Amino acid sequence: MAEEPERRAPSHRYGARVLEWDDLAEIAREIERTESDPEGVGIMTRKGRVYPVRLNGVSLKASPLLKQELLSVGGDAAHARGIADHSVASSGVLLLATWGQYRRLLPKLKRQPFGLAELAGEVDRALRYYVARGGRTVPLPHRALPLGDRPRVMGVVNVTPDSFSDGGRFLEPTAAVAAALRLAEEGASVLDIGGESTRPGATPVSPEEEWRRVAPVLEGLRDRSPVPVSIDTRHPEVAARAIDAGADLVNDVEGLRSEAMRRVVARTGAGAVVMHMRGTPATMQADVEYADLRGEVFRALADATDAAIAAGVAPERLLVDPGIGFGKSAEQSLELLVHAGEFRSLGYPVVVGASRKSFLGTLAGSPGPADRLEAGLAAAVLAAERGVALVRTHDVGPTVRALALVAAAERAARRAPATAGTLATDAADD
Ligand code: HH2
């Protein structure tokens, strides 16, 4: 008779458990629980997480030096194989280092040639912006917008006959004003009013017609909205009149690419959501090929915000948005959503609009916009977890309730460790 194999439960003598953390405070608290030396908590916290930083176009001369310097502080850097045999002129580089290793690397790089000093400044800023948490207030012409204290919601009201999810519902101004005020009551921190559909292939609307649609709604909200109002427009003349009529933000799906739009925003002191879109709503789905989707969107947003600042727009009034669904396939929209946190490296609050969009239908199997609430809530939670400051949605009440859980989880993660003093991230003593 065959012998029964011996059955033994696996050993859990040490309770080996892989920990999940994100926030430095969380790492410090876990290290404290080992009853480690308080000084060690600070030192080890800075070793508790690797921050991968992606760079483009690092020269043949700079790449090996960068790798060598990073290896010397205990990190590493990936670059093109062709750097070694000089078959390429430049390379994309991926830096892999802990906070402490960056703090030792960056001063060294600042003394190096071949553009490494400038590169160090950029890496330093990206890291600081990425880890920066906490609330701030965006100054706006009529009302201020608090952001960053918790994930907040931008409620959408489209005063159009043809918007993809709410077209025709709010063409009557009193209905639109009532709907917007209801969204504010449900917890929206901004109301986004649009008079032109920008869904793929939508018929463009003249600025006159767009203004005819939105003017009475803005007028109705001017003294009644408890929260800032944003005008969703690509037309500078509509933006200027809207700000005069009480709007605080310009939500421009063309990312302030028009010089006239940049001038309007600069002159009025309005805030601006700079969204990424290649081409126009009529043409954007014709070419959805990207060699490096996130890299290209990042570069375009960096260029657009730089141009806005050069035109006189105050950086603290800018927000950025990767433009989900605008010239992107369903998979590309998903990629931008799950990596939305990377855009925080630009230093501006990140906005994401996924609500009811077709990629949710494609990926979650919900055919019509009306069936996409649950997938939209999941998208909002994914975005908020990644540090997106403002989620644009048609479904305000449910989204506010879903994001309250994300806010509670964040508060718990950021609870200060007992040895808070040791967390001064600039100390270079690891
Ligand atoms: N999406 C739409 C419109 N404006 N603005 C920002 N910043 N981000 C977005 O993702 C975004 C946006 C499209 O949605 P909707 O307004 O509901 O539809 P339509 O363009 O058909 O009116």
Explain the overall architecture.
The chain has 430 residues and is an alpha/beta fold. It is 39% helix and 15% strand. The protein is built from 14 helices and 13 strands. It has an eight-stranded parallel sheet. Strands 1-3-2 form a three-stranded antiparallel sheet. Strands 4-5 form a two-stranded antiparallel ribbon. Helix 8 links the parallel strand 8 and strand 9. The termini are far apart. The C terminus is likely disordered. Bound molecules: 6-hydroxymethylpterin-diphosphate (HH2). The site of 6-hydroxymethylpterin-diphosphate (HH2) has 21 residues, from strand 6, strand 10 and strand 12.
Give a short synopsis of this structure.
This protein is an alpha/beta fold.
Strand percentage:
5-15%
Bound molecules: 6-hydroxymethylpterin-diphosphate
Largest sheet: 8 strands, parallel
Q: How far apart, in Å, are the first and last alpha carbons? A: 61 Å
Instruction: Write the H/E string, N to C.
Output: HHEHEEHHEEEHEHEHEHEHEHEHHEH
Helix content: 25-40%
Keywords:
430 residues; alpha/beta; 14 helices; 15% strand; binds 6-hydroxymethylpterin-diphosphate
SSE inventory with pairings:
Elements: H1 24-32, H2 38-45, E1 50-59, H3 62-72, E2 76-78, E3 90-98, H4 99-109, H5 116-131, E4 136-138, E5 145-147, E6 152-158, H6 173-185, E7 190-194, H7 207-222, E8 229-232, H8 236-244, E9 249-252, H9 259-268, E10 271-275, H10 293-310, E11 318-321, H11 330-338, E12 351-353, H12 358-364, H13 373-385, E13 390-393, H14 396-414
Helix pairs in contact: 1-2, 4-5, 6-7, 7-8, 8-9, 11-12, 13-14
The chain binds 6-hydroxymethylpterin-diphosphate (HH2).
Residues 156, 158, 160, 163-165, 194, 197-199, 232, 251, 253, 273, 275, 321, 323-324, 351, 353, 392 line the site of 6-hydroxymethylpterin-diphosphate.
